[in-house]
Amino acid sequence: MLLDGRIAVITGGAQGIGYAIAERFIAEGARVVIGDLNFEATEAAVAKLGGSEVAKAVQCDVTSAADVQALIDAAVGWGGLDIMVNNAGITRDATMRKMTEEQFDQVIDVHLKGCWNGTRLAAGVMREAKSGAIINISSISGKVGLIGQTNYSAAKAGIVGLTKAAAKEVAHLGVRVNAVQPGLIRSAMTEAMPQRIWDQKLAEIPMGRAAEPSEVASVVTFLASDMSSYMTGCVLEITGGRHI
C-alpha cells in the first residue's frame, strides 16, 4: 500500500473531493484526521470511512491559525504528521460589479489564508521529522480565470504562488509541497448548474466528460506517496485536457 502507516490531515474532508481523498488514503493504508467547519458532517464522514481506528473528526475553521494548529496537534497526538492536504474551500460567485467586499474577503480568507495556515503549520512539524508531503488544492480557475470568480480565481492562483515559494523554503528539510488544479469535477455543486452551463463547460473538455472526485484523489495520493519523491513545487492539472 502506498501510504501504509502514515497519518494525514485533510481540511474540508467531510464531503466532495476532500472525502474522496480521505477514502483513498485509508484504502492505501493511512489514518486520516479530517477537519471541517461542520462537525456533525465530519463525524458522519468518519463513521462512513470506517470509524475511529482509521479516522478522526475535528471541527476546524481554516481561517483560524489556532483551529488549524489544533487539527495538526490531533494528528501529532495520534502518532505524527506525514501528509497535509489543504482542501477546504467555499464559493461566493458574482461578477465584479455585483460582488461585495465581504464576498471577496471570505473566499480569499478560506482558500488562500487557510492554505497558508495549513502549509506553514504542517511544515513546522514536518521539518523536525525531516520528511512530509503537503498537497494544496488549487483550481483551473486559478490558471485561466473564470467569469464571476474574481475572488476564487485570485485565491486559487495565489495558492500556486504560495506552493512554489513554500516548496523552495522547505525542500532542503525533506518536506515536499505540491499542488493540483482540478477542472470540472462531478459533485453536488456542479450538478446543480443549469444544463446549458454544464454543456458549455463540457464542450471545452477534449476527453468529453467531467472527472469523478476519486480521480482527483488518485493524483493527490500519488503526490502524497514516495512515488513522487523527487517532485516539489509542481502543479498538476486534472482537467481532461481542458485549457491546454
Molecular structure report:
This protein is an alpha/beta fold and 244 residues long. It has a single domain (7-232), classed as Rossmann fold. Helices cover 48% and strands 16% of the residues. It has helices at 16-27, 39-49, 65-78, 101-129, 141-144, 150-170, 188-191, 195-203, 213-224, and strands spanning 7-11, 31-36, 55-59, 83-86, 132-137, 175-182, 235-238. The chain has a seven-stranded parallel β-sheet, with helices on both faces. The chain starts with 6 loop residues before the first strand and ends in a 6-residue tail after the last strand. Belongs to the short-chain dehydrogenases/reductases (SDR) family.
Approximate shape: globular
Instruction: Quickly give the CATH architecture.
Output: 3-Layer(aba) Sandwich
Share of β-strand residues: 15-25%
Query: Considering the protein shown, what is the CATH homologous superfamily?
Result: NAD(P)-binding Rossmann-like Domain
Which class do the helix and strand fractions yield? alpha/beta
User: How far apart are the termini?
Assistant: 33 Å
Helix amount = 40-55%
The structural domain count equals 1
Mean pLDDT: 96
The total of beta strands comes to 7
The name of the CATH topology is Rossmann fold
| Rg, Cα atoms, Å | 17 Å
Q: Spans of 5+ residues with little confidence (pLDDT < 50)? A: none
Quickly name the level 1 CATH class: Alpha Beta
Read across the widest sheet, the strand sequence of neighbours is: 3-2-1-4-5-6-7
Specify the biggest β-sheet: 7 strands, parallel
Along the chain, the helix and strand elements come as: EHEHEHEHEHHEHHHE
